[in-house]
Specification:
two-stranded antiparallel ribbon, single chain, 232 residues, mainly alpha, globular
Length: 232
């Protein structure tokens, strides 16, 4: 089932760093995603500047440490997004201090975050679990070979689910249908191309982590229920 694998999660040197970086990327992308910008004929949310990196982390976590540990990080990101939403909602509705003139601007910018975060959490959970599941299953079927095929193949599924759900939930009723469709298509193409371009870097990271951590997990007996948090 594993290579040099033990039952202790504390023996890994880089797992917690990757997990924290993954969560940070999600939080930043959720705030940036409120901005739409045009790039030639394409329309993007500004969150796309950093969000594809989350899928790189997801690929690396699943490839090296397995689906079960990746699942824990996905739920960590979900919890962090929910916490950010609650704090920002409270912050917007707190009465402004006398002499502070930016309440309207603050509410205009961050008041939209809860809907963005809800859309992000739904799309992100569906997309990340799809991505991780496909990569883990492909790894077992391929015997650990052709990493490039696993990372790109899982991204085609995960990013497709994520992008469609996120854009539709976040902007339905706010933007015209043609803009929503254009944003979904533009975002999906960008993320897939980004994954392809970054594949050599993913190879380097995965190879270095496997050597340094002494682990290469194969999910042959893993329970893929996304709501389980155990490592068995």
């Amino acid at each position: 089932m594993t290579k040099k694998e033990t039952s202790s999660p504390n023996r890994f040197h880089y797992f917690d760093i990757l997990g924290m970086a993954f969560v940070a990327v999600l939080l930043v992308s959720n705030i940036a995603a409120q901005k739409l910008f045009a790039f030639g004929p394409f329309t993007f949310t500004a969150g796309i500047l950093v969000f594809p990196i989350a899928y790189i982390f997801g690929d690396v976590l699943t490839e090296v440490y397995g689906y079960a540990r990746s699942r824990r990080v996905i739920w960590m990101g979900f919890a962090a997004n929910a916490f950010m939403t609650v704090v920002l909602v409270i912050a917007v509705y707190l009465p402004p201090a006398d002499g502070w003139p930016l309440q309207r601007e603050f509410a205009a910018v961050l008041g939209f975050v809860p809907r963005i975060v809800v859309a992000s959490m739904i799309g992100y959970c569906a997309g990340e679990f799809s991505n991780s599941y496909v990569l883990a299953k492909m790894k077992v079927r391929m015997g650990g070979k052709r990493l490039w095929m696993r990372t790109i193949g899982s991204t085609l599924v995960g990013e497709g689910v994520d992008t469609a759900l996120f854009v539709f939930i976040a902007f339905y009723g706010v933007l015209p249908t043609n803009v929503i469709v254009a944003t979904i298509i533009s975002g999906y193409i960008f993320k897939v191309v980004y994954e392809i371009i970054i594949t050599p870097f993913t190879y380097m990271i995965v190879g270095a982590l496997k050597r340094r951590e002494g682990v290469d997990f194969f999910d042959r007996r893993t329970n893929f229920n996304p709501f389980r948090l155990g490592l068995e």
